[in-house]
């Protein structure tokens, strides 16, 4: 009975657990994930007036900036404002922790804010700042653990800790000494916890789904599970270019080429029409998936158009070493060969050799085709 009383008291102090607030800001949160940032940020600004000392409104404002960054990471125009909001989150959460040293909610926001900062610093290859932010995030993740019976919002920290405390030493050996300072995690449990957060949380649901589909698509080799999540996210937030792009990618990954092409053509239309967040990075994915299906269907003229578009987007982004760019060039060379355009074919194959590392499969195939066809 005493334990139940303690849980009730904790719930009453955590703004994260305020169901009335969740109901009031559902529209703002959904608008953010649907890339209607103006509407979302109006709602978050109202929260800042209502709860001026709480980190939640600033965290959500920072999260809004993060999604502007995530869809086109080469664009640095949102970095400063993102970092400013996360710094404010940290400052307010630290003030909460000074008043109440065991406040799990404050630790959650500190872990989240430092974690997001670390993600940006890593993206910008600012490794010293990334390491500092990452170490702080891990410290506060550890502090925020252990209240999963309270609320799934706080379980996200446990989930990420369990998964990545095992994943990081395997993939980044240089960080093993840092990870030895923390308890050993459990990757399988981490995935289960992410699933629970994705199912039951309010603020952390979409972020958990984001991590899940990325992990299922790559680390866990579960492409159909990744497709299920991206399909849901695209249906729920149809104007989010990031989810739109990865829905097309997962359709392509599981062999549903025609559907991948149809979704990709819609992405390309939105880029042409100037929709928010639809830009060159989405374009290079979409152009490649459309080209691949048309290529397989023998529609070489149209396929060539989309391969050329893939190449153009890759050059716009300076992504000439990416697989999409290199294999688009390779296929352009093959189509040119079949059409008797040997000088074009040679140019495309030589371009592959110029941009690909020698051990890359595209480099080897381009070399072989040049030799075989005496180009």
From TrEMBL:
<dbReference type="InterPro" id="IPR011990">
    <property type="entry name" value="TPR-like_helical_dom_sf"/>
</dbReference>
<feature type="compositionally biased region" description="Basic and acidic residues">
    <location>
        <begin position="363"/>
        <end position="375"/>
    </location>
</feature>
<protein>
    <submittedName>
        <fullName>Tol-pal system protein YbgF</fullName>
    </submittedName>
</protein>
<feature type="region of interest" description="Disordered">
    <location>
        <begin position="354"/>
        <end position="375"/>
    </location>
</feature>
């Amino acid at each position: 009975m005493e334990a139940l009383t303690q849980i009730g008291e904790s719930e009453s102090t955590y703004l994260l657990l305020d169901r009335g607030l969740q109901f009031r800001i559902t529209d703002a949160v959904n608008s953010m994930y649907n890339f209607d940032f103006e509407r979302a940020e109006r709602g978050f600004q109202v929260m800042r007036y209502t709860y001026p000392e709480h980190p939640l409104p600033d965290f959500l404002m920072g999260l809004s900036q993060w999604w502007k960054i995530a869809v086109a990471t080469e664009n640095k125009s949102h970095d400063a404002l993102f970092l400013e909001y996360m710094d404010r989150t940290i400052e307010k959460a630290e003030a909460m922790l000074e008043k109440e040293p065991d406040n799990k909610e404050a630790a959650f926001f500190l872990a989240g804010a430092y974690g997001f900062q670390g993600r940006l610093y890593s993206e910008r290859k600012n490794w010293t700042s990334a390491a500092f932010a990452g170490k702080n995030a891990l410290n506060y993740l550890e502090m925020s653990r252990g209240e999963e019976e309270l609320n799934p919002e706080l379980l996200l920290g446990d989930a990420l800790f369990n998964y990545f405390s095992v994943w990081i030493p395997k993939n980044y050996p240089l960080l093993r000494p840092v990870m030895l300072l923390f308890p050993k995690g459990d990757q399988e449990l981490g995935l289960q916890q992410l699933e629970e957060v994705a199912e039951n949380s309010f603020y952390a649901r979409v972020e958990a789904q984001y991590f899940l589909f990325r992990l299922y698509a790559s680390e866990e080799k579960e492409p159909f599970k990744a497709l299920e999540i991206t399909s849901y996210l695209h249906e729920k937030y149809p104007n989010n270019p990031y989810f739109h792009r990865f829905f097309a990618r997962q359709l392509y990954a599981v062999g549903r080429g025609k559907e991948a092409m149809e979704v990709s053509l819609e992405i390309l239309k939105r880029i042409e029409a100037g929709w928010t967040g639809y830009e060159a990075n989405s374009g290079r994915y979409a152009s490649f998936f459309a080209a691949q299906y048309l290529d397989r269907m023998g529609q070489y003229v149209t396929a060539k158009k989309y391969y050329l578009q893939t190449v153009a987007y890759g050059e716009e982004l300076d992504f000439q070493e990416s697989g999409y760019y290199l294999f688009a060039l390779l296929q352009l060379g093959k189509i040119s060969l079949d059409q008797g355009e040997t000088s074009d074919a040679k140019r495309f194959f030589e371009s592959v050799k110029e941009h690909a590392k020698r051990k890359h499969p595209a480099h080897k195939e381009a070399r072989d085709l040049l030799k075989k066809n005496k180009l």
